[in-house]
Design goal:
membrane; TIM Barrel; single chain; 12 helices; lipoprotein; eight-stranded parallel beta barrel; hydrolase; GPI-anchor; glucan endo-1,3-beta-D-glucosidase activity; alpha/beta
C-alpha cells in the first residue's frame, strides 16, 4: 500500500510540475530609446528581469549602456548595426574592428544572440546600399567568428514592403528584383548559418473598421484562402503565411521566421480612432496568448514564431503622429498602460475588459486633409499626414524617386509641378509609389508620415493613380 501510495503521489507531483511548466509564458519586446523621460538602462534591465515575463529584447542600435546593463540577466539581446554602416562593412577588416569595438566587450556576459545588419534596409535605403546588404551580413558573420563569437547569429529586419502581394497568403510573393537579386542570396546565407529571417508584420497598418475583430485577435467569422483551403481568424497569421509562401517560392521553406516587430498604439490623433487602450490591449494580449500557445499558423502549424512586441515604453520624442509615441506597454515610470499578462503575477488576459470601441460616428476635430473614411470603393490614395514635416516629406520624395517611380510629373514643366510645394509633390510621389508597389497598407507607411485616403486628390491636369 505504501509503495503504491508513493507512486501515485510521485505521478501526481510530476503531472502538476508538467502543467506548471506549460503555464509559464514569455514574450520578446523592442526596447526603443527615443524619449527624454525614460529610466536608465540599469533600472530597465532589473525591472524586466524581476517584474516581467519578458525573456528577450531587441534594440535599434548597439547601445553600450544597455548592453552593460543586461549583463548577467540571462535575457537574450538582439542588437542592430545602423543602416549607415552597411557600405563600410564590405571591408572585412572594418567589420572585424567594428565587432571587436562594439560587441566583443559585452559578450558573453550579455547574452547577445543575434546581430541585425540594418533595419528595413530594402524599404528605406538606395538600390546601391540594398545590393551591399547581403555581403555586409556575410562579413559581420565572418568577423564574429574571427573574434570568438561563432554562436551569434546574423540577420536583418524587413518591413513587409518586401512583398509584392500578401493577400491571399497562398498567392504571396516577394517583389521582382529583390526576390532573386537580394532575398534568395540572403535566405541561402541564413540557411547555411541557421539564422532567422526577421520581418515586421503590422496588422495595425492595414486597419479597416469592417475587419477590426479580425485584426485584433477577437472572435470573428474568419477569412478563407480558397487556394490553400485554409481558414484564418487573425491578420497576424495571414501576414506571416504570406512571408512563408514567398519563401517557399524561392525554395527556402525551412528557414526560421521571426516576427521582429509588431504592435498597436494605445493613443492617436483624432483621425486615428483605431488607437485606443482597448485595441492595443486586445492586439498585444492576443500576441502573447498566441505565442505561448505554440499553435503556429495555418501554413506553419507546428512552428512557434518568436515574437517581439513594439515596444517597451511610450517614447515621447518620436516624430510623426501621436500614435508613434504611444506604442509602449509601459510608461516611463514602469506603470503598465494596460494588462496583457507580461507582469509576473498578472492574469494572462488583456484588460480593461471593456466593450470593443466604436468606430465612426462623429469626426469632430478631424483635419480636412486627408479625409480618412472606411473603404467603400476601390479607389485608394496615399497622402501625407497633416503633421508630417517638410523634411520628412522631402525624404519621402527622394526615396520614391530612387525606386524607379516616374517622378517627371512633379518636375518643372510637368502636369503636377504646380503648386511648387514639398507637400504637393510628396503627395503625388507617395501615392505613385503606393500604387506601383501593390497598394498594401505598409506601402503607405513612410515611417508614419503617410495615410491611406479615399477622396481623389487629382486636380486640373494632374491626375493621381488609383
Amino acid at each position: 500500500m505504501k509503495i503504491s501510495s508513493r507512486k501515485h503521489s510521485f505521478l501526481l507531483l510530476f503531472s502538476i510540475v508538467g502543467l506548471c511548466l506549460r503555464c509559464v509564458i514569455s514574450i520578446g519586446v523592442n526596447y526603443g530609446t527615443m524619449g527624454n523621460n525614460l529610466p536608465p538602462p540599469t533600472q530597465v534591465a532589473q525591472f524586466i528581469k524581476d517584474k516581467t515575463v519578458i525573456d528577450r529584447i531587441k534594440i535599434f542600435d548597439i547601445n553600450p549602456d544597455i548592453l552593460r546593463a543586461f549583463a548577467n540577466t540571462g535575457i537574450s539581446v538582439t542588437v542592430t548595426i545602423p543602416n549607415g554602416e552597411v557600405p563600410n562593412l564590405l571591408d572585412l577588416a572594418y567589420a572585424r574592428r567594428y565587432v571587436e569595438a562594439n560587441i566583443k566587450p559585452f559578450y558573453p556576459l550579455t547574452k547577445i544572440d543575434v546581430v541585425l545588419v540594418g533595419n528595413e534596409v530594402l524599404h528605406w535605403d538606395t538600390p546601391d546600399v540594398q545590393m551591399k546588404l547581403v555581403p555586409a551580413m556575410k562579413n559581420v558573420h565572418k568577423a564574429l567568428g574571427l573574434t570568438g563569437m561563432k554562436n551569434v547569429k546574423v540577420s536583418s529586419a524587413h518591413s513587409l514592403g518586401i512583398l509584392l502581394r500578401s493577400n491571399p497568403p497562398s498567392s504571396a510573393r516577394f517583389r521582382p528584383g529583390w526576390d532573386v537579386g537580394i532575398l534568395a542570396p540572403m535566405l541561402q546565407f541564413l540557411r547555411e548559418t541557421k539564422s532567422p529571417f526577421m520581418v515586421n508584420p503590422y496588422p495595425y497598418f492595414g486597419y479597416n473598421p469592417k475587419q477590426e475583430d479580425f485584426l485584433l485577435f477577437r472572435k470573428n467569422k474568419g477569412l478563407y484562402d480558397r487556394f490553400s483551403k485554409k481558414w484564418y481568424n487573425n491578420s497576424f497569421d495571414m501576414l506571416l503565411d504570406a512571408v512563408y509562401m514567398s519563401m517557399v517560392r524561392l525554395k527556402y521553406p525551412d528557414v526560421e521566421i521571426v516576427a521582429a516587430e509588431t504592435g498597436w498604439p494605445s493613443q492617436g490623433e483624432t483621425y486615428e480612432p483605431q488607437c485606443t487602450v482597448e485595441n492595443a490591449a486586445s492586439y498585444n494580449g492576443g500576441l502573447v496568448k498566441k505565442y505561448n500557445s505554440g499553435t503556429g499558423t495555418p501554413l506553419m502549424p507546428h512552428r512557434k514564431i518568436e515574437t517581439y512586441i513594439f515596444g517597451l515604453f511610450n517614447e515621447n520624442t518620436k516624430s510623426g503622429s501621436l500614435a508613434e509615441r504611444n506604442f509602449g506597454l509601459f510608461r516611463p515610470d514602469f506603470t503598465p498602460v494596460y494588462n496583457i499578462g507580461v507582469l509576473k503575477g498578472e492574469q494572462g488576459h488583456p484588460t480593461p475588459s471593456l466593450p470593443p470601441p466604436k468606430t465612426g460616428g462623429g469626426n469632430k476635430g478631424q483635419p480636412k486633409t486627408p479625409v480618412v473614411r472606411p473603404p467603400t470603393q476601390d479607389k485608394k490614395f496615399c497622402m501625407p499626414k497633416v503633421e508630417a514635416t517638410d523634411a520628412q516629406l522631402q525624404s519621402n520624395i527622394n526615396y520614391v524617386c530612387s525606386q524607379g517611380v516616374d517622378c517627371t510629373p512633379i518636375q518643372a514643366g510637368g502636369p503636377c509641378f504646380s503648386p511648387n510645394t514639398i507637400r504637393s509633390h510628396a503627395a503625388f510621389a507617395m501615392n505613385s509609389y503606393y500604387q506601383k508597389m501593390g497598394r498594401n497598407s505598409f506601402n503607405c507607411d513612410f515611417a508614419g508620415t503617410g495615410v491611406v485616403a479615399f477622396d481623389d486628390p487629382s486636380y486640373g491636369t494632374c491626375k493621381f493613380q488609383s
